Amino acid sequence: xxxxxxxxxxxxxxxxxxxxxxxxxxxxxxxxxxxxxxxxxxxxxxxxxxxxxxxxxxxxxxxxxxxxxxxxxxxxxxxxxxxxxxxxxxxxxxxxxxxxxxxxxxxxxxxxxxxxxxxxxxxxxxxxxxxxxxxxxxxxxxxxxxxxxxxxxxxxxxxxxxxxxxxxxxxxxxxxxxxxxxxxxxxxxxxxxxxxxxxxxxxxxxxxxxxxxxx
Length: 215
Prior knowledge:
Layout: E1 2-4, H1 10-21, E2 27-29, H2 37-43, E3 51-53, E4 59-61, H3 63-74, H4 83-111, H5 120-143, H6 155-170, H7 181-191, H8 194-197
Parallel strand pairs: 1-2
Antiparallel strand pairs: 1-3, 3-4
């Protein structure tokens, strides 16, 4: 199967790491929804990252739906079976993904919209939402610090770590570690794990580079 999308997207990276944790072989085609829009549209006309091309040719999209498919395929889940632990993982995942969405809105506002068209009240609202998500996420991680063991990682654990790294590389002014000490500490430990190291968030190789071969 093939995973389409750039690893600087937390949603693409979430799927890539899940594939590795679930021991599912895959090829990665780092197509951009911007610079390689047309080639991407030939695979998925909706041009949504991540896109997963299954072995039978079926094209899936949306990271949550793709991960659900992968867990079914692998015959095991990255969600805890215990209800209390699963509820915690669901809350952490929701906060992490919400934070990523807010970062994307901030980045798009600053880098895609003309400077004279920026809407300050909207940006202020989104930034307050981001801070609220981070504050709550840091509290959840501090309350139940994940174990840096790939065999024990949950969807909440990997989503939280991915979200923090994404914010550090995408925001013009990254959130200080001191603002979210537990989250920052967890992300640093997670990034040292093999599945994370093999899928670096700042790996933005352009597929048009001579000699480049997706793997």
